[in-house]
Every structure is written in C-alpha cells, then in structure tokens.
Amino acid sequence: MSIILNCTETAIKDAASNLIKGDLVAFPTETVYGLGADANNKDAIERIYKVKGRPIGHPLIVHISSMVNLDKWAKDIPEYALNLARAFWPGPMTLILQRTDIAKDFITGGQDNVGIRIPSHPVALELLKEFESLGGSGVAAPSANRFGAVSSTSSTAVEVELGDYLTKKDLILDGGFSSIGLESTIIDCTRTTPNILRPGAVTKEMIAEILGISIGSKTQNAEYIQVKAPGILESHYSPKAKICINGTPSYGDGLIAIESFKTPEGVIRLASPKNNEEYAQTLYEAFRLADSRNIEKVFVIPPIGNGISVAINDRLAKAAF
Ligand code: TXA
Ligand code: MG
Fold first, then answer.
1. Ligand 1 nearest-atom number relative to CA 231
2. Which of 142, 192, 216, 299 has the largest CB neighbor count within 10 A?
C-alpha cells in the first residue's frame, strides 16, 4: 500500500485506473475518509468487507461525481429528494433511494434501495470524475476504519486503521484533515416523507428550510431496526478507551470539552474546540490520541444546542454505549 501525499492530476488518474483494475483506494472526503472500490466489481467489494472486518450484508454508499449519473443507480426519485440533492450536493449528505438493476445485492445488502452521495472534497470529486471517464459508474466507499471503530479523518488514521490489511497495489490518497469530521447525514427517501437515519452536518433545520416541512429522525423507530445500517447500531464509532459522558475525570483520565471548560489537575486534555463545528472536526482525532496514549477513560462534556451538535451527541452516545 502506498500513501500518495501529493495528489496531482496524474496521481488521481492513476488512482482511478487502480479502482478500475479492482484495487482499493482510500480517499479523503469532507466528512471522513472512505475506503473506495468499483461499485460494479463484486470481488473488489468483497475485499472492502475483509479489510474492514465488516459483517457481510451491510449496505455500502455509492459515490458519484454529479447528478447526471444519479439515474444510473436510482429510480422513481421523489421530488423532495431531488430538491435535497440540488441544495446539498456536492456535500455531506447521503440519500437512500430506490435502486436500479446496476445496484446489486453485494452493494445494497439485498435491500431494494441504495445509498448515494456526491462528496465535495476536490480530491474525491476529481477521483470520481476520472473513474467515470474510464467507464466506471460509481465508487462504493464505507468509512476507512475497522468495523465498529472510529472513522478516519486523516490519511495517517487510515494507515493506522487499515495499513495491515491493504495490499501492495492499494492506495491511500492524502487530502488533509476532513473539514467536517463526522460521517454524512443519511436520509431515507424511499417513503412519502424523508427520514433522517444518521444525523450529520446537513441538519434537520437545514432540511426543513429547503423542503418547508419539519422532518423526523426515525433511527429509534421499530420499523428501522430492520434496516441493515451499522452506523445506526447502538454501539459504533468506538475507541478502545471507555467514553464517559459528563461525570468528573480523575488523575490520568482524558478530557474532551469546549475551550472555556477548565482542565482539572492531572487530567489529560485531548481537545479544546472553540465551537461545535470545531468539536465535530476534532472529535475522532481526540479519540485516536487517547488510544495512542493508552488512556483508559475519556470524559466528554457534550455540546449543547441544535445543528451539528445533534450529530456529535449521536456519535458520543454510540461511542459510550
Ligand atoms: O460520510 C460518509 O457517509 C462516509 C464517506 C466515506 O462517504 N461513508 C460512510 O460509510 O460513513 P459507512 O459504510 O461507514 O456508513 C454508511 C452507513 C452504514 O451504517 C450503512 O449501513 C448505511 O450507511 N447505509 C448504506 N446504504 C444503505 C441503504 N441502502 N439503506 C440503509 N442504510 C444504508
Ligand atoms: Mg462507518
């Protein structure tokens, strides 16, 4: 496996041809890094599951470069979903839509819908464009981490997580730290009204503003327990350290809290974000820092309010479960 630190046009073209050949390419997105493979290549997709240690049958998100390619993967798209796509793509949002025939069971986990996203990170977009110009239709990419572990927000984190499982021909493209730092908002668009399956940087308020309706989050709803979405499992996004929400840290414990919160003596400060956006950006790196320093307990003072803090609190609850 090589890490490409300088993602020139030529380097990205080469990476796209690696994908076409069936190799894996981890790439930066504005949310978190993805572990990419040709979404039409069953063998390559099987390797994603092996490298991640992910149970077979969990669906993968297909990444495309523009809405022009949407009809290849999805059909009977409701008007509200198109409105969301126009408003928030390229960006941190995944839409669950009725699948077409090219979205095979090995992508959708046997469900008759498919998750689609157009990311905005320039390296991701360029890679997808080059891949499509070579005849590809979409790149399946789960977060580039071992199953259940913390998503990667840097190329170094990808290497730490997956380096041992990648082969010589696989690549990791570096694109700096992910600017958002939490996985995309997933919105189920297969019903008459949209439902948020996983909160993210495209918030409930932003969606309501575009659609002019208030929308639900059905992750706790019984009918969604059937949906095979590990990101909505109760335990996920977990570092090795035990995450304690609120509570009082003791000597040698880690602490993540907003800047104004004072660090008690002997406690190891892992992050001091200035605002909720920075909180999201630094959270996973702070978890990784805790593990690299063998800290056993991390106390977290959760952010308050709406917007991105809903997504932060969702991940904190899962990491603490
Ligand atoms: O920000 C992101 O979404 C990142 C970047 C790389 O795009 N990707 C990501 O993928 O977080 P992953 O596989 O780690 O998490 C995607 C979640 C999983 O919980 C998966 O089960 C769910 O989305 N998902 C994918 N397709 C689905 C579908 N058709 N129906 C329901 N859930 C789906
Ligand atoms: Mg994931």
1. 19
2. 142
Substitution site in 27, 94, 314 for ligand 1 pocket (most atoms within 8 Å of beta carbon)? 94
Q: Which CATH number goes with the domain that contains 173? A: 3.90.870.10
Domain limit, last residue, from 162, 196, 226: 226
Which residues sit with their C-beta closer than 6 Å to ligand 1?
29, 31-32, 34, 58-61, 94, 96, 108, 111, 113-115, 117, 119, 141-143, 183-184, 186, 227-232
- Structure confidence by residue, pLDDT tens digits, 75-132: 999 999 999 999 999 999 999 999 999 999 999 999 999 999 999 999 999 999 999 9
The residue from 226, 257, 292 where one domain ends is 226
Q: Give dist(CA 98, CA 66) in Å, integer.
A: 18
Nearest to 198 by CA among 28, 27, 51, 32: 32
Q: Tokens representing 286? A: 């702070």
Instruction: Report the separation in Å between the CA atom of 72 and the middle of ligand 1, taken as the mean of its atom positions.
Output: 19
Are 202 and 79 a contacting pair, CB within 8 Å? Answer: no
Give the containing element (helix H, strand E) for 161: helix 155-162
pTM above 0.85, yes or no: yes
| Cα 313 to ligand 2 centroid, rounded to whole Å | 16
C-beta of residue 218 within 8 angstroms of C-beta of residue 189: no
Give the number of whichever ligand sits closest to the CA of residue 110: 1
Let me know whether 189 and 313 are in one domain.
no
